[in-house]
Amino acid sequence: MFPTGERAETVASLDRHLPEQRHPWTLDGNLYIDTDDEQTGYLFSDWDPEDVAILEAAIGHHPTWAVQIDISGRIDGTAEVHQMIALLLEHGGVATDDYTPHPWTLPEILSGTVIDGLRFFDFRGYQELNPEHGRS
Description:
alpha+beta
C-alpha cells in the first residue's frame, strides 16, 4: 500500500489505531502490518520493472516506502484488509495486491471495480481464472 503523505504520518496513524505494538502492528492477530522501503528493506525487490512503472504512473512519482500487510492463513482476510485500506488510504494513495499489477484507489476498492476480470484482493477470482495457482 502506498498512502499519500509522509511515512511518519502513516506510522502515527497506525500507532493511534493499533496501540502498544509496532514492527509489526497486528490487527486481531490476523493481519501483520509493517512499513518497508528501498534503502533498508526489500521494497520492489520482487517486482517486475513494468509493474513499478505502472505504479509510478498512477501516483506521479517513484515511491520510496510502502505499507505491507501480510494475512494469516487462518482467515479469509478480506474484511480486515478492507478495514486497513480504508484507514490508510483515506487521504489518497493506492494499494496493490498479488493478483493484478493495477494500483487500486480507495474508491475503486470500495465500489468493487473490476479490472482484468478481478476486484482488489480477489484471490477467489484469481483462483477461478488461474486454477493452477493457489492463494499466494
